[in-house]
Amino acid sequence: MTPASATSALEMRDITVRFGGIVALNGVSLTLGAGSVHALIGPNGAGKTTLVSVLSGERRPNTGTVRMNGTDISTLSALRRARLGLTRTYQLTALFQGLTLRENLLLSLVARDRPALSPADIFRRRDRTRHADEVEDLLDRFALRGKAGEKPAALSHGDRRRLEIAMALATGPEVLLLDEPLAGLSTADAEALVRSIEEGIKGRIPILLIEHDMDAVFYLSDAITVMVNGTVLASGAPEAIRASPEVQAAYLSEEDDF
Ligand SMILES: Nc1ncnc2c1ncn2[C@@H]1O[C@H](COP(=O)(O)OP(=O)(O)OP(=O)(O)O)[C@@H](O)[C@H]1O
Ligand SMILES: [Mg+2]
């Protein structure tokens, strides 16, 4: 195996997870490059979500190590990893219902710079001023400008998903783990979110993207890893994955939209 590269954001080595007799992950290794979108695909039960929970620190693997930006984080709690900037979006979906979208975004930006935040801080004029450009930029990139003055209750499902991901980005993550961000969205909402990921995140923050929507995966990804039955079947550039007969046979040929 190659040594940890200075440019790898996340490096997983030989991760094994057993649930009783089930081997959910069997010696999985995967490297996420800085600034890239790396998709993790595979049929139901392949072990994708289990891998994400090992990365986030929610599940301790039976064997294996995880490094982030070269540092071994294998023994750190989920909270410590989150504080280091390893961000799994669903953990951050607590929206403040009494605040507008613009204020919710502002709160995430303020929290990034001052973790010991008091509730009154967001209403300080100087915080609003300091983060004004960033808030407006996020509203544009995540297509939320039209709803900026609304409360979360007024949002559609798709708007809400984009807001949650915008807020995750606003906290200044080192790595984003997105587990099926398009699940349950209409075609139009899915397209809007793909555009937001492309315009708002891609190339700035490395993303591990788990997604069943193959159009989105091939459109967004710089690299793809295919998992089947807890093992890595193939890993590489999207064109190589698309052309692989092994991958076709095991997975992609079953996908309607491939
Ligand atoms: N908490 C658990 N206890 C027992 N078995 C589990 C548990 N979580 C997952 N598994 C099993 O581990 C395997 C991998 O599941 P996992 O949820 O990681 O798959 P996945 O690739 O995310 O699938 P999907 O595409 O359906 O989300 C499956 O066989 C699943 O039944
Ligand atoms: Mg899953």
Your description of this structure?
With 258 residues, this protein is an alpha/beta fold. The protein has two domains: 1-85 and 173-258, 3-Layer(aba) Sandwich (Rossmann fold); 98-170, no CATH class. Helices cover 35% and strands 24% of the residues. The strands form two sheets. Strands 6-7-8-3-9-10 form a six-stranded mixed sheet, with helices on both faces. It has a four-stranded antiparallel sheet with strand order 2-1-4-5, covered by helices on one side. A hairpin with a 2-residue loop joins β4 and β5 (71-72). α6 (157-170) packs parallel to α7. The longest helix is centred in the middle third of the chain and has 14 residues, at 157-170. The chain starts with 7 loop residues before the first strand and ends in an 8-residue tail after the last helix. The model is unreliable at 1-5 (pLDDT under 50). Bound molecules: adenosine-5'-triphosphate (ATP) and magnesium ion. The site of adenosine-5'-triphosphate has 11 residues, from β2 and α1.
Shape: globular
CATH topology name of the largest domain: Rossmann fold
Give the structural class.
alpha/beta
Relative strand content: 15-25%
Q: Regarding CATH, which class of the largest domain?
A: Alpha Beta
The main sheet comes to: 6 strands, mixed
Considering the protein shown, what is the CATH homologous superfamily of the largest domain?
P-loop containing nucleotide triphosphate hydrolases
- Following the backbone from N to C, one meets helices and strands in this order, namely EEEHEEHEHHHHEHEHEEHH
Oligomeric state of the chains in view: single chain
Helix content: 25-40%
- Widest sheet, order of strands: 6-7-8-3-9-10
Bound ligand species: adenosine-5'-triphosphate, magnesium ion
InterPro entries: AAA+_ATPase, ABC_AA/LPS_Transport, ABC_transporter-like_ATP-bd, ABC_transporter-like_CS, BCA_ABC_TP_C, P-loop_NTPase
Protein name: ABC transporter ATP-binding protein
Pfam families: ABC_tran (PF00005), BCA_ABC_TP_C (PF12399)
Domain ABC transporter: 10-254
